[in-house]
Design brief:
single chain, alpha+beta, FAS1 domain, seven-stranded mixed sheet, 8 helices, 7 strands
């Protein structure tokens, strides 16, 4: 499970905090939040209203080879584009998640599925080896809805 039953990281605590602040308390999003802070995006995520965030779980970042990840983390403009590609304007409920959505970097992400099973095709992921899966979702924060994904997405080339 990607959220706690009570206390920090619980549904009640998430709903009372803005997006970046809330995601700091979700187990498994440490690497995402380190990247968000490295790109100086936390404040923006906390104040922008009505967002949907596709947040990669820690294992998504650790699966990326250092030769690919390290230069990306060191290049703030590229890192910013990558991270904003994980954010969609508007709060998407599970019934609205499937479809093609414009991301904050100006790209598009296509999500397939219904109910509680959603995927993003491998060609939209940084590694390109397998489809990304939403492993936990519909987590409301004060200004966003968060869906945790098992891969890092990538903007179109």
């Amino acid at each position: 499970m990607c959220i706690r039953d009570r206390g920090a990281g619980s549904p009640a605590a998430l709903a009372a905090a803005p997006a970046a602040t809330a995601m700091l308390t979700i187990p498994g999003l440490t690497n995402t939040m380190v990247s968000v802070h490295a790109a100086a995006l936390a404040a923006s995520l906390d104040v922008t209203p009505d967002l949907t965030v596709l947040a990669p779980v820690n294992e998504a970042f650790t699966a990326v080879p250092p030769a690919t990840l390290d230069p990306l983390l060191a290049d703030t403009p590229r890192l910013t584009a990558l991270l904003t590609h994980h954010v969609i304007a508007g709060r998407l409920a599970p019934g609205e998640l499937a479809g093609t959505h414009t991301t904050l970097d100006g790209g598009q992400v296509t999500i397939e599925g219904a109910g509680e099973v959603f995927t993003i095709s491998a060609d939209q992921t940084l590694l390109g080896a397998a489809d990304a899966t939403v492993i936990c979702g519909n987590l409301p924060t004060l200004n966003a809805t968060v869906y945790v994904v098992d891969q890092v997405l990538t903007p179109p080339a």
